[in-house]
Amino acid sequence: MAVPAAEQSGALAGDSIPIRAFAMLGGRRVVAHGVQNSIDAHDVIMRGLPSASLMHLIARVRVLSHGDALEKAIGMSSRTLQRRRKDAADTRLSVEQSSRAWRFAEILARAIDVMGSQEAAEAWLEAQAIGLDNRRPIDLLPSAAGAEAVENYLTRLEYGVYT
Fold first, then answer.
1. pLDDT digit string, tens, across residues 70-92
2. Angstrom distance (rounded) from CA 118 to CA 115
């Protein structure tokens, strides 16, 4: 069984979602600035996450490595990712890509809480959900409204409301 990325990076399941998202993106070792709350996250996103943080996330999240999931979740094509890999140590993501990477990490952290494991959360992202009009959560992530629908559905699941 896979160990959740947050636990691999030192964040624990009881930590806040921003702290766990930060850990999934490489934590202080990769991002170089601490994040304790959403305001800290905003500041990091506005500076642009290091490309290495996206590489860290992709290496630990299976769902991002196949199909068009990366483009849906982060807004980056696999070709752009290949170019980024070459200079990941020296470049930063755009504010938009940083924001989408952060939001994906938060949604994944929340899904891990609700589903119980990273494997289950990733499987859930790729499965049709009745409460999302039989759409896959990963397919809704390209837009802010879709990502919000996924977050709202996770809240409903957490409280036992499945439709």
1. 999 999 988 888 887 777 667 89
2. 8
